[in-house]
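job 3f2a | input accepted
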Amino acid sequence: MPLREPMPHAYTNACHRVGNTVTKAYAGPDAGARQAREEAALRALAGQLPVATVVDSQPGVLTTAYVDGVPGQDLICDGFAAAVLFTLGRMLTELQSVLPEFLPAHDGTGVLVHHDFGPNNAVLDQGGTTVLLLADWEWCTLGDRLTDLSWCEFIVRMHHPDQIGALPALWDGYAARPPWELRQQAIIARAQRHRAWVTSWRGDDGAEVWRDRVDLVRSWHELPT
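job 3f2a | predicted structure (225 res):
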């Protein structure tokens, strides 16, 4: 039997590598709906974006093919922050050019939004110049193009504060640097939405964590140009 190994950087759901596959067991409220949305995204985006191939789908568990590479957050810790962020900015322009016809009409309007975009959900080559896998599509929707760009900035500021000087590479790859006030508002809106979801699952403990994070985002300032 293949060894069952926990996947790194999996926080909400239980993700394990089993040989050449990865199993994702969905947890929390609306787990079934999130699994269905992720499966629909992976099937629709195959050949358009670097997403995992669906191998099997059972109630509560989605199995995909394993993609070998280096997690983006590990590369940032290893000194490749600028390369990773430039590559992610360029990747985001490709993502936002895809027509998300698989999403339901009630999602509203706008571009395809991954909704947890950043180095935490990217697997890249050793140099950080190519995205081999963009994972975790369970939150994808239609919306504002600033959501993913700003959330990637949030991940860096929150989890890699010693590397925030590399953030200009993200905007260089994306070929735009929207005003800080708009990026900050987009981060707060996304964080508050996640806070509501966590509260519905974990109650006041989850709410407190994300309330503190929203307050932290409000204290941040634009980086020098």
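job 3f2a | The chain has two domains: 4-65, 70-179.
job 3f2a | closed
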